[in-house]
Amino acid sequence: MDLSLDADERAFAEEVRDFISANLTPAMKRAWALTPSASSDPEIGMAWQRALHRNGWGAPGWPAQYGGPNWSFTQRWIFETECARAGTPNVNSMGVNMVGPVIIGFGSPEQKRFYLPRILAGEDYWCQGYSEPGAGSDLASLQTRAVRDGNDYVITGSKIWTTHAHHATRMFALVRTSDAERKQDGITFVLIDMRSPGITVRPIFTIGGDHEVNQVFLDDVRVPVANRVGDEGDGWTYGKYLLEFERGSRMVSTKLRSALQGVLDLALAKYTGPAIDDPDIGFRLSEVEIDIDTLEMQELQLLSALQSGQNPGAGSSLLKLRASEIRQAVTRLGADVIGHDALVIEPARPLYRLDHDALLPEALLPVMPTYLNSRGYTIFGGTSEIQRDVIAKQILRL
Fold it and tell me: Which residue numbers are catalytic?
């Protein structure tokens, strides 16, 4: 794999840096730096999404015919690297990186015409209706029921750990339309308007003190059959396809490298004496950096496969597993670097205001809330145990 950039790629990197400089406001950058959870609030992330869309960069992984920029995998790597270095906020990945590819791959022409432009322009804010109180890691056991009534499905049930459901205007969900002998059968993929009568969103506050996830109750919610993606009963196939793209279509290593740099800066600047002088801290910094280098090579391999038209496959589980573990290692290292200061947690949320009236001093990043929130990375999006099972079955053939 040749990692050197040619003249055109260097020029593209400069173009990306110029774009970020012109469009990433200090308020947006500062707000994202003070966000301890995985998802940026809509006022931050959607503003960045709209800026990207104006430049034709709203969906780096989409085909050009649906509004993607038609980048090579090297350009995507350059773009994500420069964004991580600059500290750009996350966009609504539920739309761009998850439901968007499913609609492109399996949606009807009408669904593509309606939903894809709205995702690109940041007009819709999506959440994911997968996990249920009795169906988390064993997602195929989901019981949210959709009963056909003329041109509608009537949906009853509950979804849990639903990220940003309290902000979302739309949900993509897996629902049960029949009781097949094999529980993966009889599951259907539907698109739900979150403003529909019968939807109730109840907040769940995480250990870090943030309201990021929710439980969503659906009581006789009517959803047009036209909002079904693909064939009835084939939702499990579409859901797996979506999870492959969620886990394997983004360059997580670039953000991890940026986070590690923040920990290094903290270690060098610690006012009670540089923590970098501690041999254990120095060793762990080096160890995590090597892990990130390895992850980056794996991501580049996978992006190359995507560029040639292949699905991420089980390789996405490998990336999700390692990225989750490395992210936890970085945040744990940050908590250890600041020592007893880690006991101080700012309870107010959000930790920023876009008008620069910060609730936290700019020099104090939310190290402990980020550490606490990162405990969930090996659980959500598919637990580490599930990822190991996928790797064993599909790669090691066990």
Answer: 246
